[in-house]
Amino acid sequence: MPSRRDLTLVAADVGLKAPKKKAPPPRTRMTGKERREQLLDVGRSLFAEKGYEGTSVEEIASRAGVSKPVVYEHFGGKEGLYAVVVDREVSRMLGTVTEGLSGGTARELLEQAAMALLSYVENDSDGFRILVRDSPVASASGTFASLISDIAGQVEHILGREFKTRGFDPQLAPMYSQMLVGMVALTGQWWLDAQKPDREVVAAHLVNLAWNGLSGMEARPRLSSDKRDRT
Amino acid sequence: MPSRRDLTLVAADVGLKAPKKKAPPPRTRMTGKERREQLLDVGRSLFAEKGYEGTSVEEIASRAGVSKPVVYEHFGGKEGLYAVVVDREVSRMLGTVTEGLSGGTARELLEQAAMALLSYVENDSDGFRILVRDSPVASASGTFASLISDIAGQVEHILGREFKTRGFDPQLAPMYSQMLVGMVALTGQWWLDAQKPDREVVAAHLVNLAWNGLSGMEARPRLSSDKRDRT
DNA sequence: GCCGTAGGTTACGCTCGCGTAGGTAGCAGC
DNA sequence: GCTGCTACCTACGCGAGCGTAACCTACGGC
After folding, report:
1. C-beta atoms of A169 and B211 within 8 A
2. Chain B 26..85 CB hits on strand D (< 7 A)
3. pTM to 2 decimals?
C-alpha cells in the first residue's frame, strides 16, 4: 500500500466531483475555528438554497472540501449546524435593524426600520431566505410558528410602547406586529426575486402603505432622509 | 343500485376520523372516487401538519386505512397527491375570496376580501397552512417563489385597475400586492395559533392598518358591515 | 354458478442520507 | 526522532421511505 498521502492532495482537485457547479476544492488544512466558520458559511448558503431537509450533510462537507465526520466533529450533526446558523442569522438581523434606528419621530423610526431591514435582505440574502423558510422540526412539532412569526414577537414591545403613548390598546400590538412584519417579509422575498427597484424605493413604498394606508397613499413616496426625486 | 355496498358505506364513514391521530384501521372497501377523496383529505391534513417532506406515503396510506400501492394507484406518488391537494386548495381559496366580493367602494372591497380570506383560514386551516408553507421542490429549484407569493400575483390585476383609476403607477401594483398579501398571510398564521380575537375583529384591524395606515389608525376599528361595538 | 374486474394486499428492491468506528497525515515540543 | 495532539480521512451500519411486482378477493353481470 502506498502511504504517500500527500499525492492525494494533488489528485483530489481533478477528482470526480459531484454534479455541476463545483469548484475544485483546494483541500486545505485549517484550524478548528477557520473550518467551523467555513462550515457555517457553506451551511448557510446551502440551507438558503435548498432548505433544511433538502440539504445533506454530505453536500455541506463536500462543498467545504472536507468529509462528513468533520461536520459532526464541529456541530454534532445537521441540526446542530442549522441551529447555530439560524441563531447567528437572527441576531445579525436584529442587530442590523436596531443599529439602524437612530430615533426621532415614529414615522422616522419606521423609515429607518424599513431601510435597515432591506439592507439586511440585500446584504445577507441567504440568511433572510433561511429566516423566511420554516424551521426543520419546529413547524412539524405541535403549534405552528415560523421564525418570522417569532421575530415579529420582538417588534411587539416597540410597537406596544408607541401604542400606549398614542392611546391605543397595547394588547393589540402583537397583532399589528404580525401585520407589519408579514408585509415586509413577503415584500422582501419578492424583492429578492425580481430585484427591480432600489432599496430606497421599496422602503419608501413600504412606508407609504404602512404609514399612510391605501386611503392616503402618495403616488411617489419618498423617505424623509432622501433628497432625490424618484418613482 | 341496490347492493350490499351499503354495508361498507356505513362502515366507511367511521373511516372519516379526521381529527384524532391514530385508530385501528377499520379496513373498509370503497369505490375509487371515495377512496380518492379520502386520500386527498388525509393528505391535506398530514401535509398541513408535517409539511411535504415530513409526510411519508406510508403514513398517508395507513391513516386512510389502506396500504401504500393504493396511493400510487390513484396519484402516481407523493408528488402527484400533493399537486392535487395544492391545486384544489388554491382554487378553493381564490373561490372563497372572489365569492365574498360583492362590489362597492374600494374600502368595502377591502373589507370583504379580508373577511373572506379569514373565513377561508378559519374553515380550511389545513389548506391555509399548506399554502403558507413552501412547496416541495419549487422552493429548491432555481428562483425562490412561495405559493403565497404566486397568489399575490393574482391580486395584482385587481389592484392594478384600482391604481389606474386613482392615478398611481400600475407598475407598482405587484409590489403592493406582496405587501398586502404578506400582511394578511402572516396575520392569518398568527391567528391560527392564538385564536384570540374573532374573525371580524381581526379583519377590522387588518383593514384599519391597510386602509388608514399607522398615521391614521382608529383605536377601535369596525367594518362598515358590522353593527356591533367592539374592541 | 362462473368469471372479470375493481379494489386491495404482502413483500420486496433500492437509494439516500444520517451518524459512527477506526485509522492516517502533519505539526508541535521535548 | 519519538510522542502526542489536532485535523481529517475511508468505510461502513442502518433505518426511512419511495416505488413496484405479483398475488388475492369480493361483488355484480350474465
Report:
1. no
2. 55-58, 68-69, 72, 76-79
3. 0.84
Which chain B residue has the Cα nearest residue A206? B179
Chain A and chain B share a number of CB contacts under 8 A equal to: 158
Report how far residue B97's alpha carbon sits from residue B100's, in angstroms, rounded to the nearest whole number. Answer: 5
The CA distances from residue A129 to A84, A191, B215, in Å, are 15, 12, 31
- Please state, rounded to an integer, the average pLDDT across all residues of chain B: 84
Q: In this predicted model, what pLDDT tens digit does every residue of A121-163 receive, in sequence order? A: 999 999 999 998 866 655 444 456 678 888 888 889 889 988 9
CA B95 to each of CA B91, B119, B186: distance values in angstroms, whole numbers, following the listed order = 6, 12, 20
Q: In A24-77, where does DSSP find H-type helix? A: 32-54, 57-64, 68-75
Sort out which chain A residues have CB atoms less than 8 A from B231's CB and list them.
Answer: 169
b/e B177-199 (16+ beta carbons within 10 angstroms → b): bbbbbbbbbbbbbbbbeeeebeb
Dihedral over Cα of A31, A33, A38, A43: its sign: positive
Length of chain A in residues, anyone? 231
Q: Look at residues A133, A145, A147 and name the one whose alpha carbon lies nearest to residue A46.
A: A133
**Residues within 8 A of B (CB atoms), A 34-93 only:** 49-51, 53-54
Give the residue carrying C-alpha cell 446551502: A46
Among residues B139, B164, B166, B142, the alpha carbon closest in space to that of B150 is found at: B139
Q: Render pLDDT for A134-143 as a digit per residue (tens, 0 to 9).
A: 666 554 444 5
Q: How many C-beta atoms surround the C-beta of residue A28 within 10 A?
A: 11
Euclidean distance between the first and the last CA atom of chain A, given in angstroms as a whole number: 71
Q: Are A185 and A132 in contact (CB under 8 A)?
A: yes
Which one-letter amino acid corresponds to residue B183?
Answer: M
CB of A77 lies under 7 Å from some atom of strand C: yes
* Residue A151: CB atoms within 10 Å: 17
Per-residue model confidence as pLDDT tens digits over B4-43: 333 333 333 333 333 433 344 456 888 889 999 999 999 9
Angle, vertex CA A133, rays to CA A182 and CA A61, nearest 5: 155
- In B, minimum Cα distance to A143 occurs at B193
The pLDDT assigned to B86 comes to 95
Nearest beta carbon to residue B189 from set A51, A146, A168: A146
Residues 6+ apart with CB under 8 A from B185: A182, A186, B132, B148
Judge whether B141 is closer than 8 Å to chain A, CB to CB: no
